[in-house]
């Protein structure tokens, strides 16, 4: 946007509703200004905008979509802090149903990657699942089920991608 007058801010609302989803409080002229709709529940592709404290001129508005090169078979996440979270996923191979990969990343709440992805297992089956649980503020437990290998595995990592234990099966074997 471009500020025409005043010191405007832009409020984003659900369509025909008074529920405030987000607010652009500091607008940088002639650049993309980004805000996440963290309060949005469900899917919605039309919003009401309200300009307060001035006026702005819009060139265009972009609604980004998240894209990835392969679909996720399973995904789990938990918050690390007020502005970061850990996400673990099993990505499906497009060519071979037994060659999916399990990895995790730490991600900022604005969607940018902090660290990773870190590979945990490069050959999990297509019918697999992953779960992550924090141990403390620097370590977490990751467990996954590999249907084709009939294995339930677990490992402990730190947030920087260092493997501290495992992987082992639930019966203690490697």
Structure description:
Helix content is 0%, strand content 55%. The model is unreliable at 65-70 (pLDDT under 50). Strand 4 and strand 5 (84-91) form a beta hairpin. The chain is built from no helices and 11 strands. The strands form 3 sheets. A 4-stranded antiparallel β-sheet has the order 4-5-6-7, with no helix packed on it. By secondary structure, the protein is mainly β.
Taking the alpha carbons of the first and last residues, their distance comes to 56 Å
Uncertain parts: 65-70
As a percent range, the share of strand residues is over 45%
Indicate the structural class.
mainly beta
Helix content: under 10%
The number of E-state strands comes to 11
| Assembly of the depicted chains | single chain
Spatial order of the strands forming the largest sheet: 4-5-6-7
> Sheet bearing the most strands, described?
4 strands, antiparallel
Count of helical stretches: 0
Q: What's the gyration radius in Å?
A: 21 Å
> What's the average pLDDT?
78
Order of helices and strands: EEEEEEEEEEE
**Global shape:** elongated
């Amino acid at each position: 946007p471009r500020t025409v007058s005043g010191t405007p801010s832009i409020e984003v609302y659900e369509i025909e509703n008074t529920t405030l989803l987000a607010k652009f409080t500091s607008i940088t002229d002639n650049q993309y200004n980004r805000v996440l709709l963290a309060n949005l529940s469900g899917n919605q592709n039309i919003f009401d905008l309200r300009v307060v404290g001035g006026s702005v001129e819009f060139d265009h508005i972009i609604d980004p979509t998240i894209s990835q090169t392969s679909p996720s078979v399973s995904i789990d996440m938990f918050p690390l802090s007020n502005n970061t979270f850990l996400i673990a996923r099993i990505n499906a191979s497009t060519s071979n149903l037994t060659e999916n990969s399990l990895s995790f990343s730490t991600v900022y709440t604005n969607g940018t990657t902090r660290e990773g992805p870190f590979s945990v297992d490069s050959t999990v089956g297509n019918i697999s699942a992953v779960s992550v649980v924090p141990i403390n503020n620097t370590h977490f437990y990751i467990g996954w089920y590999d249907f084709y290998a009939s294995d339930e595995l677990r490992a402990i990592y730190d947030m920087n991608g260092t493997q501290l234990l495992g992987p082992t099966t639930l019966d203690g074997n490697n």
